[in-house]
Write a structure and sequence with these properties.
With 205 residues, the chain is an alpha/beta fold. Helices cover 37% and strands 16% of the residues. The chain contains seven helices and five strands, in the order βββαααβαβααα. The protein has a five-stranded mixed β-sheet with strand order 3-2-1-4-5. Helix 5 crosses helix 7. The longest helix has 21 residues. It is globular, with a radius of gyration of 17 Å.
């Protein structure tokens, strides 16, 4: 199975207005990117390169976010704002393709990463360089789980990776670890689709 476009599997970590697990605001803000991780896949789904950068936000990194991601305020001090990281990220993508507009982004649940990425570009008045098409890896994972007789709820990156026997190279909730794991999940889904075989999960799981 081969795609007509290269893929960039993207994961972002962000600031939050939630300080503790007990404080649930009506709307989760996720205003500023604090880390980007990405894996570039060629048209044969091979991971050819990765990208990772910490980003300095324009609001505090709370203890809650540090607890989830292990990213501390000190780690992001002295790092560029997104307006400084964006050109570097785009140059990395362009270095692996003929046309950045033909590259397709992919993320785990496009409701978080893609709006956050677009807001970051808009905040610094930079044109969004990618097309509007995006693969939702979580939706494809739900399809894989359904076709293989597994549970289709509570589908987190860690849960699906465990079902597939994929071990993370690092800690979850760090952008590069999650992006590479999501890329490997995507590889497995398309390999199974091409082979026409989905190993069944345990009954009732």
């Amino acid at each position: 199975m081969r795609l007509n476009n290269e893929l960039v599997v993207l994961d972002l970590e962000a600031t939050s207005n939630q300080e503790t697990a007990d404080e649930k605001p009506p709307v989760q803000t996720n205003n500023f990117i604090i880390e980007i991780g990405a894996a570039f896949l060629d048209r044969d789904f091979k991971i050819v390169d990765t990208f990772q950068r910490l980003v300095r936000p324009e609001e505090p990194i709370t203890a809650f976010i540090t607890g989830v991601t292990s990213i501390t305020p000190e780690m992001c001090e002295g790092q560029p704002l997104w307006e400084g990281i964006a050109p570097e990220f785009e140059a990395w993508v362009v270095g692996h393709c003929d046309n950045i507009k033909r590259v397709r982004l992919a993320a785990w649940g496009t409701y978080f990463d893609m709006p956050l990425l677009r807001r970051a570009y808009a905040r610094y008045d930079r044109p969004f360089p990618f097309s509007g098409t995006c693969f939702d890896v979580k939706t494809l994972a739900m399809l894989w789980a359904a076709l293989s007789g597994r549970r289709t709820n509570k589908l987190g990156v860690q849960t699906v990776a465990s079902e597939m026997g994929i071990l993370p190279d690092g800690c979850y909730h760090r952008a590069l670890t999650d992006a590479v794991t999501e890329a490997k999940i995507l590889q497995r889904i398309f390999a199974d689709l091409e082979g026409g075989f989905f190993a069944p999960g345990p009954p009732g799981k």
